[in-house]
Amino acid sequence: MSKTTIRVVTDPGEFESLAPVWDNLLEKCRDESTMYFTHEWLATRWRHFGEGQRLNLLLFERDRQIIGIMPLVRNEYRIGPFKLDALESIGGTSRNYVGLMLPEERKEVISALLAYLKENLRGVSLVLRLSLIPGDSRFLSALKEGVAQLSKDLALEERFKTLAPYLDLPASWDEYFGSLGGERRRMLGRMLRNLEKKHGVVEFRQGDADSLEAGLNRFFDLHQERWQAVGISGSFVDPRVKEFYREVARKFLNRGWLYFSTMNVDGKLVSAMYGCIFNRKLYFIASGRDIRYSKYSVGQLHEMQVIKDAVSRNLSELDFLQGDEPYKFYWTKSARRYMRVTIIRKGFLPALRLQLLRAFLRLWDVRQYSLREICAILSIRRRERKEHKKMGLLEKLEKLRRG
Predict the structure, then answer these.
(1) Nearest CA to 98 among 86, 90, 109, 108?
(2) Span 122-165, pLDDT tens digits
(3) How far apart are CA 341 and CA 223, in angstroms?
(4) CA dihedral 370, 371, 372, 373 (to 10 degrees)
């Protein structure tokens, strides 16, 4: 058997040209992949946010066949005279499996990756930093096993990052709705009746080619209004983020993956949910709702309809993605653990260097927000903790975090 080699792609044009090969490999790895690992998502993200980064796409090849892909970028973090170079996945987004590889070739690919890291993580400021890896991923298990065998050369740190609630969808809506409890069912019914009585007809629609652009514009506005009302800028204050979501929506629509659901009251769009259906799973990417309708819980009414629709489509799961916001636990009590993994060359005092690395990056993260936004975020987290306590979730969530 020929040796597995790594070819590093740094040219964005070559990244774009890999789409057919990427799709073929993705199809063979569907059980361990998500929409965040599609070529459409990653190449589009690079095109919109790659400025200032260096593409470092790893292609694992054997006998002229690509058996694995690891889409990385090299980022530079700088605070005053101090800097850090980090190899990271393109857009450290939710449920990131990091490496796309044939299941039967996993150990071979991991072995080649570690040899590459041993050779390239030479400077004291260069690290491999992977965020939001599911704690139960086979990739992570194989990576830890491989590093243990190279313990003289590499050090790996695995730390809990966040929770990601998900809902295993039942066979029927009646089965699921009946499991919610009488008080919650009555509250949802009451809110819907009050909304219809006061404002008229409530309709739920799916975005199509004709309505998508107008729906997205309204979605962006609702999302921004909601966050700015609590003192946070919001994701879509950056026009690059809007253009990224627009382009991804069009590409996903062409592939039959887009799930853009709107809730309309008397013809007015009051809630929007931007998601994706991939491999029989619905991913809840982002949402926006009209805060003027908050007394009717339009967000919850829309989420209820989305779950009902997902059940009717015979989907297997609704993934709420990263974050333990209380509203997600209105619908489920299950959550995945997402981990952050850092690998460095062993060298001098690796444990201390990893500790200093964490402190440096925490400081860098904090510097991205204004003092007003930091205060707003802390206030939101205090309210969320109170809501978790009210829901009786504090102990359960702490157990999930500890694993």
Answers:
(1) 90
(2) 765 689 999 888 888 888 888 999 898 877 889 999 999 999 99
(3) 31
(4) 50
Residues 6+ positions from 88 with CB-CB distance below 8 Å: 72, 73, 74, 75, 128, 129, 130, 131
The C-alpha atoms of residue 123 and residue 126 are separated, in whole angstroms, by 5
Asked if residues 146 and 114 have their Cβ atoms less than 8 Å apart, the reply is yes
SS3 state of residue 133: strand
What residue numbers bound the domain in which 251 lies? 170-315
pLDDT tens string 301-321: 999 999 999 999 999 999 999
Residue 61 in 3-state DSSP?
strand
For residues 136 and 19, membership in a common domain is answered with: yes
**Domain contains 330:** no
pLDDT tens-digit series, residues 66-103: 999 999 999 999 998 888 899 998 866 555 557 788 88
Let me know if residue 322 belongs to a domain. no
User: Which DSSP category does 53 fall into?
Assistant: -
Q: What is the largest CA-CA distance in the chain?
A: 71
Asked if residue 32 lies in contact with residue 66, where contact means CB atoms within 8 angstroms, the answer is no
Instruction: Give helix 394-402 / helix 371-390 axis angle, nearest 10°.
Output: 110
> Residue 38: what residue type?
T
Contact 275, 315 (CB under 8 A): no
Measured over the CA atoms of residue 363, residue 367, residue 370 and residue 376, the dihedral's sign is: negative
A 10 A CB-CB count for 352 gives 9
Pick from 171, 183, 109: which is nearest to 146 by CA? 109
Cα–chain-centroid distance for residue 351?
29
Contact between residue 74 and residue 90 where contact means Cβ atoms under 8 Å apart: no
Residue with tokens 């709107």: 262
Looking at the fold, whether 216 and 248 belong to one and the same domain comes out as yes
Question: In degrees rounded to 5, what are phi and psi of residue 241?
Answer: -65, -40
Please state, rounded to an integer, the average pLDDT across all residues of the chain.
91
- Domains in the chain, number: 3
- Return d(Cα 260, Cα 251) in angstroms, integer: 13
Query: Rounded to an integer, what distance in angstroms lies between the CA atom of residue 394 and that of residue 387?
Result: 9
The closest alpha carbon to 129, from 358, 356, 348, 350, belongs to 358
> CA-based Rg of the chain, rounded to a whole angstrom?
22
Which residues partner with 126 through β-bridges? 85
Within-domain flag for 116? yes
State whether 288 and 152 are in the same domain: no
